[in-house]
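Hi C.,

You asked whether I'd gotten around to modeling the 202-residue construct. I have! Everything is below, sequence then structure, no commentary in between.
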Amino acid sequence: MGRFVRSARGRRILTACAAASIPLMVLTGCNSGASAPTQAITNGEVPAPGSQPGIHSVADTDYEQIALAVDTQQVSLAELAAEPARNASAQVKGIAKTAAETVGPEAKVLRAKLVTDGNAVTADHHKPAVSDQQIAALKKLSGERFDSAWARAMYTLNEQVVAAAVVEMDTGEDQTTRAMARSKIDYASAQNGALKTLTGKQ
């Protein structure tokens, strides 16, 4: 519903009483004590998502939690690919190295942002598409079998986070989170192009 929440940085809660000129989707409260909107809305129009600074919505939190869960699993996968016992190909090792250098720092930023905004940082709310058990199973593989299974796991996680990023671009409000989502779409889509041949996908 795109309701707005107060962050630790004191972002305002956008609320309004039911008025004919304001669509229902932007209302977060409808009682006599509701505060006035921070910005006038006229002619039935609402600001475009992400057009107003200082606003953070539930959609933003959802994306941050999904992206953190995916990044965490991809860091684990990158570390696994670097193990000598996995006998991963040079291509897999290269992708894994890039992933660790990209999603590792991003995970730290996402975690810090969630904590600052008072939101959960565990995967309890949004499960990654690849579980810890699936990653553990990869430890029994090596060589080409490891390469293909590893690539499928990375590919699946990228698909999950790209889908979440698209939703964030459609409905998110936080400008920083939206910028991260835009970058994630570009990065994960490009990486899946490199992974496709390893997964056997056509």
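If it helps when you're writing up: The radius of gyration is 20 Å.

Thanks,
B.
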